[in-house]
Predict the structure.
Amino acid sequence: MTRFVDVSNMVRWTAGRGPETIISEMMQYLEDDFRRWESFDKTPRVASHTPFGVIELMPTSDQETYGFKYVNGHPSNPARGFQTVTAFGVLSDVHNGYPTFLAEMTVLTALRTAATSGMVAKKLARPDARIMAMIGTGTQSEFQALAFRAALGINSVRIWDTDPAAMEKFVRNMAPLGFEITIAGSAAHAVEGADVVTTCTADKANATILTADQVSPGVHINAIGGDCPGKTELDAAILGLGDVFVEYDPQTRIEGEIQQMSADFPVTEFWQVLAGHAPGRTSRDQITIFDSVGFAIEDFSALRYLRDAVEGSEFFEEIDLVANPDDPKDLFGLVRELSPIGS
Amino acid sequence: MTRFVDVSNMVRWTAGRGPETIISEMMQYLEDDFRRWESFDKTPRVASHTPFGVIELMPTSDQETYGFKYVNGHPSNPARGFQTVTAFGVLSDVHNGYPTFLAEMTVLTALRTAATSGMVAKKLARPDARIMAMIGTGTQSEFQALAFRAALGINSVRIWDTDPAAMEKFVRNMAPLGFEITIAGSAAHAVEGADVVTTCTADKANATILTADQVSPGVHINAIGGDCPGKTELDAAILGLGDVFVEYDPQTRIEGEIQQMSADFPVTEFWQVLAGHAPGRTSRDQITIFDSVGFAIEDFSALRYLRDAVEGSEFFEEIDLVANPDDPKDLFGLVRELSPIGS
């Protein structure tokens, strides 16, 4: 049987354990997997693009466990009452190929994207960072705020979104959790004096959410929203102001902010920093940029964490996904047409 | 909610409707989709190879519906009590990216592989073919026999397998269904006088199940087992004796029998025959070879057929795979930590 965490169980488990605790614990799984980055199979995700959006499959394997995520990205979904991003994922045993774990990943992806940003910021942002600007207060924004508090203790957030209702929603969700929130009058106002700038908008276009003159020395930019060809958020000039860190170079060159730059634009894969092979932040004034697009290993870590966390709990059920005939060569014996008795 | 056909429902539905009827009906869906081949997104499958076997994702889309299959292939599984091949698949709506249908595909893949062979043989085998040789009587063999009866009325099967128990199993399953079965003493004996030769063995090696001198004029060879790099069944010389038909050229060059041939070895994509763009069988003595590796569009057709066939029936349940907050931008509202009353 395959263990299955559906939406209802995921929601109950997340609300019960607490999203901030989950993000903290998940960061540890992410760090463990990023440190052994070289042991994973890595391929750019397989994307099916249409005018409506994109559907992607993101597989990876550490030779013991295989995992993949199905995820869509449809920027016009919210206007029609649907989620921009929904997802589910699977883990399986490499030794026999059987799927062992299936989970909704709409909520889990929100948690893992935030946990990844937090893990990276712990290494790249100034340790004394106290103020985050959040440009875009959609689905991902609350999770990001919790991740930066978990990673760096940041409690003060300056927000901006073109949709006032989305900002109100952020305040409604986060003020009760002890965040000090400033609603800015523009993106420029939001980033003024911020130590960390998170851009997390969903337009499927080469937008300029942030321009070079708005970026102060010492800032860490956490660029989340630009994640497919033709979809970027940062003024290209910003990328030349600091050092750019990515998840997986071949994928980010296609999907990230650096799609705006030449093919030899220098970047550092973040796992190198974690493993001690490359420097992270080297001075107080250095501008660091995490050009995040999301990579399969992060989903693998998130699924592995969830699988372990719900073990022995009430938060999963078992489903019958793999046919299991007594004689493995006799699949047909399972489905032989039933003869009426006496015929 | 997402409709889900688990193993138990699949088995009950298949046994109730009858595998031969299902293969017949599925052939129609396959033909419909092969005729509109050009309207599909096509990519070679994404394979993760290990010493144990392979795990693959096979996506495709017709711009309205997206589908993919997860499938493994582990030749040493049966010796350890597991299936060589297990699978499951998903259909989703392209317009919003939501998964709408999930099904076990271990049984469904067996049916679709057979239905594909049947569809192809209807065009390529001699219409008066009466005897099939079946080399390899593993999991796929009974389904193949039913497909050739459904497609061509073939009722007489000559079988050979290195494992006597697998041949006994074939006889036990198929004799009651009215097949006339001859157990041959060797592969050479089995193919003697056969109009159609199906090779369906599971060794992960460049094997020679069939040699050129065993191939008579007019035969249709249905080569199913050679389906990944380094895994072939036919003597390369056979491929020069006749005309080779494939599913999707770029994938078959990597995975099929023709991996043994030069990159410019001429082949015909089968959809071209169905669409009237290329000839199929042109003479009684022509040797036709279907170098089958399995392609994503076949799984798409199979899932589409199953989805339609179980509609309104008792053979599916609904699962909660997609989070659905009232405000699509307020995913966090679903999982906000619950505060104890009075706190």
Chain B touches chain A through 84 residues (CB under 8 Å). Chain B has two domains: 2-107+297-325, 125-294.
